[in-house]
Amino acid sequence: MLLTNLKAATMQDGYGLIEDAAILIEDGRIAWIGPRAEAPPGHEATGCEGRLATPGLIDCHTHLVYGGSRAHEFEQRLTGVSYAEIAKAGGGIASTVRATRSQSEADLAASALKRLDALLAEGVTTIEIKSGYGLDRDTEMKILKVARELSQWRPVDVVTSYLGAHALPPEFKENRAGYLDLICTEVLPAVAKANLADAVDAFCEGIAFSVEETRRVFDVAKSLGLPVKLHAEQLSNLGGSKMAAECGALSVDHIEYLDQEGVDAIARSGTVAVLLPGAFYYLREKQAPPVVALRQAGVPLAVATDLNPGTSPVHSILTAMNMACVLFGLTPEEALRGVTVNAALALGLKDRGVLAPGMKADIALWNAERPGDLAYPLGFNLLAAVIHNGEIVRGML
Ligand code: DI6
Ligand code: FE
């Protein structure tokens, strides 16, 4: 397939824009990309009506598979009850854990597919999905299995993370060390053995796990050959990012309260900063992540939905991009790099996120004049078509 008459935002060096481009796709890969005038001969051209091509979008941080609803907590928070207060009273993550434990794989898959469809309608071709709403071994494995299987039902690549250290389960309420033992000696090894996780995540926060507890989980992850990433510095500055950087983490996520020491640490380790403006928005937080310092230090910035029932029921990656601009001060270019090249980096994926020869042919086509148009509107979907693994899976060319 030779696509012609398109503008290509290759995302190599800024937008890496090619004004009048052609893309040759062979065997699910990009075989050639460049100015149309130089396209290799002998291929029948498929015109794209001047549309904008970008890499398929990558949502590198979601909690897509869960049971139940937290709409009532949204209402509670609007009457002034805080997220931490709700969590302490047995709501919050624990409420989703109860609902998720009680659901079958089929029920979890059915609700997850509806949410996934909302993301796919905006050009997402790769999604990361975390566990963390089961906490016990069987439910964590159930969530990860459902997450992996979603790619059998939809044209999307799924990357999974085991987030056992998300919250203390009720059965371990008086026994933190016991729960960490369970993670480190039973659940994590079982998850690794069944090849259900591509990485290990944790929630390092006053209401969740300490830096030392998190480090213990990371040490086991590394001994099993799994990369690590961390929910860090979301509500306070515990120094989790610095520890994660020392462990060579792929990413640190949220990081509203990250200080300069933390910025320097993740810059040294090449860790990606994943910005999650949806949670910031829903929690009506006041402290934005240190974007200027991150930029100055050359830290790659990614942007994701953090799709979850508690703090970020955001089912739109375009909205997350817009929020990253309006709330955190990213440029539209940084926002688009955040859901393409830098999101791939955050997941440790080297075969996507840019349009270049040899890369996976995951391409989104947009009814847009300029790549900056994608982060600009709210609630207006510019997507025209999607190619996944070289196949047209949405829209028509
Ligand atoms: N940080 C978050 O934003 C989500 N998990 C986490 O560690 C929230 C999870 C929830 O409230 O259900
Ligand atoms: Fe999260």
Fold blueprint:
Elements: E1 2-9, E2 17-26, E3 29-35, E4 45-55, E5 57-59, H1 71-78, H2 83-88, H3 93-101, H4 105-120, E6 124-130, H5 137-153, E7 157-165, H6 176-193, E8 199-204, H7 211-223, E9 229-232, H8 240-246, E10 251-254, H9 260-269, E11 272-275, H10 277-282, H11 291-296, E12 301-303, H12 317-328, H13 332-338, H14 341-346, E13 363-366, E14 383-388, E15 391-394
Parallel strand pairs: 1-4, 5-6, 6-7, 7-8, 8-9, 9-10, 10-11, 11-12
Antiparallel strand pairs: 1-2, 2-3, 4-13, 13-14, 14-15
The structure holds 3-[(4S)-2,5-dioxoimidazolidin-4-yl]propanoic acid (DI6) and fe (iii) ion.
Residues 61, 63, 231, 306, 308 line the site of fe (iii) ion.
Write a structural description:
With 397 residues, this protein is α/β, with parallel strands linked by helices. It has 2 domains: 2-55 and 353-395, Roll (Urease, subunit C, domain 1); 57-346, Metal-dependent hydrolases (TIM Barrel), CATH 3.20.20. Helices cover 36% and strands 23% of the residues. The protein contains 14 helices and 15 strands. An 8-stranded parallel β-sheet has the order 5-6-7-8-9-10-11-12. The longest helix is centred in the middle third of the chain and has 18 residues, at 176-193. The termini are close together. The mean pLDDT is 97. The structure holds 3-[(4S)-2,5-dioxoimidazolidin-4-yl]propanoic acid and fe (iii) ion.
